[in-house]
Each structure stands twice: as structure tokens, then as C-alpha cells.
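Memo to structure team: turn this sequence into C-alpha cells by end of day. - J.P.
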Amino acid sequence: RDWSVTGVQTCALPICLETAAATAASGEKLKTALRFFRGSDDRYMHGLTAYGLGTVMLRSSAFRDAAPMLEEAAAQFRRAGDRHGEAGALNNQAGAFDGMAEPENAIRLYRQALSLFGALNDRRQQAVVLTGIATENALLANFESALEDYQKAVGIFRALGETRFQANALNSMGVTYERLGEMERAQDLLEE
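Reply from structure team:
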């Protein structure tokens, strides 16, 4: 794409998006680009820029700012027909609600993302989202639901050979069993 008309250096936007979480300056560049794309017909770039800015906010723990920005990104990706981008924005928006200690809203958004990733047959992202849903359910003391979703995620990660993610989900299952008072099961999982 030719972004020279944006008033942002042609190479600045992709670099900002690639390193957005690393610097506050990226956030300012993304804000400048977002002002342009909000006035353009390019829904994809509008969504991508809002996603980048929302991710910067999320990683900076600015959860209340991140949530509406990621909602804007999801809407623009939807309008552009980018279902994967929409699912990613919904997933990150759920993370913002997690950061605001609003697990019900996080679960609602995670479920939307899970549905989209399922339709796209993106198994890895499905498992990542299942882990998010399970974590929120554990926070709500819905331990059985949490354990079911962790187990599904572990199975997918195992099938994909994603050992780091699998270990994380197993650890979370162990902590959940610990909260249930099932110390032997917790220890078995934590040692796995």
C-alpha cells in the first residue's frame, strides 16, 4: 500500500505496528495515522492502526483506553472483511476487560473471538482463547468450566506441538485444582 498521502512517513506505520509495544513514540505516531484513517475509506488500515494503538494501550495497562480502541479495530476489520483481524481485536479487547477486572465482559468477547477463530480453523488461537476463557471462569470460581476449557486448550496445544503454551495451560490447571483443594492433582499437573 502507498501510505504517502497520510502525512506519516511511508515506512513509519508498518514499523510502528511491528514495534508498537516497545515505545510510547509509537503510540503518538499511531494516533496521527489513526486520525487520517478515520477520515479515509480504507477500513483495513483503519482497523490495523486502531489495533496497533489499542495494543500499545493494553500493554501499557491503559485498559480503559484500550477497550474502546480495540472495539473500533474489530468493527473496522469486520467492515473490511478481515475475520482474523476482527478475532484478534476481540481477543485483545477481552484482555483489556480482564485488566479492568470485568471477567463477564472478557468471557463474552473471548467467546466471540473463539467463534471466529473456529470458523477460520485457527487451532492455535482457539486454544489461546480457551485459556483466556478458562482463566476468567477460574476468577469467577466456575472451576469446572475453567478445567474443561484448560483441558481443551492443552489438547490442542499438545496436538500442535506448542509446548510452551501447553505448559502454561497445565500450570493454570494445577493452580485451579489447588484452589479446589485437590492438592495431589495440582502437584501432578505442576510437575508435568
